[in-house]
Amino acid sequence: MRPLLLGLFALLPTLAQAQFVPIELSRFSRQRAAWLLRERLPCLGCHRLEGQGGIIGPELTGVADRRSADFIFRMITNPQATLNGSRMPRVPMPPEWALLVASYLAESGSARATPADPAISGDSARLSGIGDAGALYQSLCAACHGASGAGDGFNAGNLAVRPTAHADSAYMSTRPDDTLFDGVFSGGYILNKNHAMPAWGETLSRDQIWSLVRYMRQLCRCGGPSWSRQ
């Protein structure tokens, strides 16, 4: 799966270089965009749209009245380069999905050229510069999985499926390290889990992801299945 995901990622930087112009959406296209947001992409794990979704990121209802269409598109395709200090991961998707979702979100607003917000004070460091696994977990994972890995983060109640409790040794001991890595790298959908868990493979380094796997092992105080440790 990883080569395919990386191939999809690779198309997005080229697409994002030009000024984005929303496409005109048919009724079917609007329904497809709404389905992608609610059932396939992880966006509503963090963002709220028309009363549904998480409360980690900005509200998406009426976002086009606050942001230009170009800004919306660039946040979808390359958030780290668009907003300094953003904790939003770069989500793998075909380019046509990015065009469709950005056009859908931009459709109802004035689409004026609004400048990007400055980074939040104290959160301006690039994620690539965070080397401490505990700090990384608290920054990116704790909102859903809980500060101690109990699956009780402040955003957990907004999700249709309870986040995995990384402190649950009975469950975590059934998960090989490679599976934990793949879950962080590729997101929940790839593992037939909740699609609201985003993919971090294009935002974090492999070393950072492995450090998160080791941190999860500290939280559960357990190893993976015996066969996976041989």
Structure description:
With about 230 residues, the protein is mostly helical. The protein folds into two domains: about 5-105, Cytochrome c-like domain (Cytochrome Bc1 Complex, Chain D, domain 2, Orthogonal Bundle), CATH 1.10.760; about 130-230, Cytochrome Bc1 Complex, Chain D, domain 2 (Orthogonal Bundle). The chain contains eleven helices and two strands, in the order αααββαααααααα. It has helices spanning about 1-15, 25-40, 45, 70-75, 80, 95-105, 135-140, 140-145, 170, 175-185, 205-220; strands spanning about 50, 50-55. A two-stranded antiparallel sheet has the order 1-2. It starts with a helix and ends in a 10-residue tail after the last helix.
List its traits.
230 residues; mainly alpha; Cytochrome Bc1 Complex, Chain D, domain 2; 2 domains; 2 strands; elongated; disordered N terminus
Structure summarized in a few sentences:
By secondary structure, the chain is mainly alpha-helical. The chain has two domains: 7-106, Cytochrome Bc1 Complex, Chain D, domain 2, CATH 1.10.760.10; 130-229, Orthogonal Bundle (Cytochrome Bc1 Complex, Chain D, domain 2), CATH 1.10.760. 43% of the residues lie in helices and 2% in strands.
